[in-house]
Design goal:
Layout: H1 2-13, H2 33-38, H3 72-76, E1 84-89, H4 92-103, H5 109-120, H6 122-125, E2 130-133, H7 138-144, H8 148-160, E3 169-170, H9 183-190, E4 195-196, H10 201-204, E5 208-216, H11 220-231, E6 236-244
Parallel strand pairs: 1-6, 2-5, 5-6
Antiparallel strand pairs: 3-4
Amino acid sequence: MARRLGSLLLDGLLPPDCPLCHQPVERAGLLCPDCFRHMRFISEPCCDACGEPFAGAGFAGSVLGGAGRICASCADRRPPWRAGRAALVYDEWSRALILRLKYADRTELAPLLGRHMARIGQGMLGQADLLVPVPLHRRRLFRRRYNQAALLARAVGRTVGLRTLPDALIRPQATPPLARLGPASRRDILHGAIAVRPSRRAAIANRRIVLVDDVMTTGATTGECARVLLAAGAASVDVLVAARAPDPGRDPSQDTGQHP
């Protein structure tokens, strides 16, 4: 009751607005109707392994077929995690939200994105024991002051009542920016750059883990995280991200939506 009264008082003093266009909204943490209509949520059909939407649900060029629902990239090189889902297509609208969370101290956007991630990932979350965020290197964490993946993991955890272990993974090696690199180069750079914190091995062993991040592109970062979690004894690893970007190394004409 005290929290609710405090929220009402704050809304009276500082009327809530849309985080994208600043139009008035009913309460803090909501998008206005116009901005919400631009959000491209990923629903079925999509790739069961990486969450990439097939034709009619997002990226043009993908072709749905069969019951396997695996995109060409995942069929060619199956990720080390079990299943993957994303709440949004990474486009100009979702990018604006994520970049403000990531670089502009707009930490209040984490609960907004986290609610949609929890809704999209409810199947895997219902079977999970633990949420683990993708880590930042300590120098980047010092500059940014927070890990956006950890904020998203906490928001999802609060929504579904699931424990979050924000320091389960560490990044002992700093890596260069990966945005302009292809999948193979990203995997080479990230190999050995992520590790399980020794004091958290017991908490990870035999647990069903959902790995959380803001954006998945090639899956190289989440792949390295999943690999070290499984090597440390995790029972399974699934991946849940706020947005799915098209893989720059992917050929959409190869997508069949089927297992090989």
